[in-house]
Amino acid sequence: MHASRRFIAIPILLVVVASVAGALYLVQQTGGNENGPLRASGTVEAVEVIVSSELGGQLAEVLVQEGETVKAGDPLFRLDDELLQVQRRQALAALENARAGNASAQAGLELAQANLDIARASLDAADASAQAELEAAQQALDELYKNADLARAEALAAVAAAVNTLRDANYQLDNFTVPSNQSKMTALEAIEVMGTALDRARARFEPYKYTASTNATRQDLKEALDEAQADYDAAVRRLELEAAVEQSSARLQKAQADLKAVENGPDPDEVARLEKRIAALQASVGPARASVEQANASLAQAQARLDQSLAMLLQAQSELDLIEVQLNKLTAYAPVAGVVLARNIEPGEVIQPGASAIVLGQLDHLTITVYIPEDRYGRIRLGMPASVKVDSFPAKAFEAHVVRIADQAEFTPRNVQTEEGRRTTVFAVELEVDDPQSALRPGMPADVEFSG
Which domain holds residue 258? Predict the structure, then answer.
């Protein structure tokens, strides 16, 4: 166990020493003069685009080399197509069979439609020959029922009217209040008695008819006359209501008798004769109608076969389309313009879908990342201009500007407190380089001098 700890501690110590040494080197590279130009060194970098194959298979050929410049759409590599070509020929044969089946089903549908048209023509002819007689017989039967229905409807209406009239008469009679002095009399008896009393009261009042209305005797006789008149009117009203009830009851009985006479409908023998004739005429077109139904069933079957053949045709076409798409994807093309940074494949190898095959660097967006010590960090600002020089073009300076400043230090721990330790703490600064002539290449060492 102790030996293992010593074995692990040695690499860790080496990493720490290397980090400190690297930081001191970068500090030296940025220049020790705090008031002089701020310089740093880095490496030209580009946006990397990893190109993979959507399909797996054996590589037939690789068409580019590392460092080669390619345009968007240039072929990069191609997979072997032998297996897919065999599948394509099979799919083409299946498609031809499906087309033949679809054509046969279409012909069957057209034949079934022709048979249906013939059957319908036969039915129309049979129906036309029987239609005139059928209409006459049906009209005669309708007239029988129509007259019977009318008579029954009128009788029903009469019964309903009589019921309503009787109900109203009974209601008025039931709600009529018979004076107490007439309760033990019939209506006729009450009219006779109340009439006599009215005559007697009228005779008594006659001598005082023209006497002053303030006369007490006149007032008493007038009151007695009014009371006798009211009793007589009540007796007359009672008789009227009782007579109305008797009349309404008689009308109801007559209406019910009339309804009974017509409620059985038309003559049953005549109805049976006409119905038998109509049935015979309708049956005469039965065979022709059966032929039409059979032709319709055959047409439906033919349509189902056509639909099935069309589905098979579409499936065969889809399978062929899928193989065509796969064949097109056997060749990988450059998605963007750039330079080949890495070629991870060789002809004859078998690659898996999604595996990194070619790495492209986009030359239209080059960057350089440099490291600035903590004591010079405050002089850097976003957008700050700088000039870049590379060994390949020593007389040419490329323009650049700061696009990112790291917010965390690197190489040394964050809790360094001494002034000397803080001077070895560095910050990453990324610059974007202008290279309109595409002279620079990813991986070139570069020196950066900041302006301002």
Answer: 81-329
